[in-house]
Design a protein that fits this description.
The protein is mainly alpha-helical. 86% of the residues lie in helices and 0% in strands. Helix 1 packs across helix 2, helix 1 packs across helix 3 and helix 2 runs antiparallel to helix 3.
Length: 80
């Protein structure tokens, strides 16, 4: 059985949606790291931080769903 990392690598190479989600997640992570360089955040920056974190989590959840779907498809194929 493939690991999540192996499935992610496969999906990165074969699934444009997964690849776009991963790239967007990475860009959001970079934005968040840049924002967190400020030791004290303004209220606006705190709001921005929360928005970025929610967006990152949404992308990560969607990637996890695609991995689960791929794993389920592979298990069905193997059982046939």
């Amino acid at each position: 059985m493939l690991t999540d990392d192996q499935i992610a690598e496969h999906l990165r190479n074969t699934n444009a949606d997964f690849r776009e989600l991963q790239e967007a997640h990475h860009q959001l992570d970079e934005q968040l790291q840049e924002l967190l360089k400020n030791h004290i955040l303004t209220p606006e920056e705190e709001v921005q931080k929360k928005q970025i974190q929610r967006a990152k989590l949404g992308k990560k959840d969607r990637m996890a769903m695609l991995i689960r779907e791929y794993r389920n498809e592979q298990q069905k194929t193997a059982a046939s």
